[in-house]
Amino acid sequence: DELNKQTMLKIIELGTKLSDTVSVKNAKEVLAADYMKTANAAYVKSDFKGALPALDEVLKYDPKNASAYYILAYSQNKLKDYDAALAAIEKGIPFENPAKEQVARFYYEKGVALKAKGDKEHALEAFKSASAGKFLAPATLQIKDINKPAVPAKK
């Protein structure tokens, strides 16, 4: 795999010098896909910190990769780096399929980050936008949790 990466980097270097945009594009796609496999493997094992370097590499070679931005946002939320999660969400949403069921994943993570930061008003907006497809049930639970009345302190 390392030999393959070195080969792709050489193709990018030479292709750039020779204005061979097709070869450069293809080599970047190969590298992005390879790093995405590494990121996915870490993500599946809940190694969120371990996924970050591979995700950075994916986005270096494929800066419009919505799935990489989503995994980055999810991982940053799990690592409690909510500002980094929100930054990844804002960068990733424009590249996601605009179908409500698809983009819901970004809005759900946005809600998680905002709720954790104490911004309940904007978290509610995000969870409402996330209320679609497989995120309908968890978003609904989050909305109920935010809207439940505060329990008065016992005297």
Protein architecture, described:
The chain has 155 residues and is mostly helical. 75% of the residues lie in helices and 0% in strands. The protein is built from 8 helices and no strands. Helix 4 runs antiparallel to helix 5. It is elongated, with a radius of gyration of 19 Å. The termini are far apart. The relative contact order is 0.08.
What secondary-structure arrangement, pairings included, does this model have?
Blueprint (H helix, E strand, L loop, with lengths): L1 H16 L3 H24 L3 H14 L4 H13 L3 H11 L7 H17 L3 H10 L6 H12 L8
Helix pairs in contact: 1-2, 2-3, 3-4, 4-5, 4-6, 5-6, 6-7, 7-8
Please give the alpha-carbon distance between the first and last residues: 64 Å
Order of helices and strands: HHHHHHHH
The total of beta strands comes to: 0
Low-confidence stretches: none
Sheet having the most strands: none
Our Rg estimate from Cα atoms comes to 19 Å
* Number of continuous helical runs: 8
Binned strand content: under 5%
Shape summary: elongated
Instruction: Tell me roughly what share of residues is in helical segments.
Output: over 70%
Kindly state the mean pLDDT as a whole number? 94
Structural class: mainly alpha
State the main characteristics.
single chain; mainly alpha; 8 helices
Summarize the structure.
Helix content is 75%, strand content 0%.
